[in-house]
Structure of 3-isopropylmalate dehydrogenase:
Amino acid sequence: MGIKKNILVIPGDGIGPEVTTWGKAILEQIAADFGHDFTFDEALMGHAAIEATGNPLPDETLEKAKKSDAILFGAVGHAMYDNDPSLKIRPEQGLLKIRKELGLYANLRPILLFDELLNASSIKPSILKGTDILFFRELTGDVYFGEKVRSEDRNTASDLMIYHRYEVERIAHKAFEAAMQRGKKLCSVDKANVLESSRLWRETVQAIAKEYPEVTTEHMFIDNAAMQLIKDPKRFDVVLTANLFGDILTDEASQIAGSMGMLASASIGDGTGFFEPIHGSAHDITGKDLANPLASILSVALMLEIGFGLKEEAKVIITAVDKALKEGFRTNDIADETTNPYKVLGTKEMGKLLLKYIAQTTYTN
Ligand code: IPM
Ligand code: MG
């Protein structure tokens, strides 16, 4: 039985539109193959929205977002803001506001390692092989949303690192539930040796751990976790952490998968789910047909599985990505000296190849 869903596409800035086009095309292909009825709408966010309306998250975008069943997002950001901290209106504000407004408190970032890409990482294949980590990054608290202050003389500034117990509890439950479905191991990362907010975090996670006796829980300081992640990534199963630590740790973890261009994420919470690649707007390669569309395509797989409960459809996408890699096809970011130069594809060619493979997988199953 086909399902009916209304999907909002927010391409955003930089390579966002280039990669999101392919995420959307894959959704259309899946809908056609499996008899689903997906309807699409589009909205502005980030620099694109500032240019058009003066606001990084226009009201119209927020209204459309609240009404949709899922959101496929590209990236926000523009080079002009990076070296000018004095600019008051910034593209990233749109992303932070939509996370808060939609109550997207849990950001899931799976480190999915394709065997073919073991050599694309700067870490030794023997260390990487078999790694399978699922990050739960808290997304609507921490220094990201605490009070920001700048003194009158402009010489002093602070960002408040703040957590409420309920914020830790709700994401901890989600992470423990996921651990129960996976390897039954959970590592909670904090800085409880220094930070009061981390002591609240640890105490709360310890209490919730008692409700999941089958899960082996450990607590690790962020500095140690950053080191363990590249020393022995296989030791991790589910990693639960706060907003800022999760932001940093997942960029580091992306190198395990070979490239940021491969990592997808799902933000979930009270309502509509939000699905996006973890890479940013990448102005340096914008418009050059060099961006890797696989993170957007894998974000669509997360939308289907986590957002709509369509496991089979998600699997078809992952199988198609696996096939493209097994056949030796690469985008620039995941190519290495062993790659056949004729198999290094641009964004569009990689997108088209995936569409073809998805159609094939569906009809041969
Ligand atoms: C991410 C990004 C964002 C974040 C930026 C663009 C605000 O780095 O989603 O990881 O820090 O959360
Ligand atoms: Mg980040």
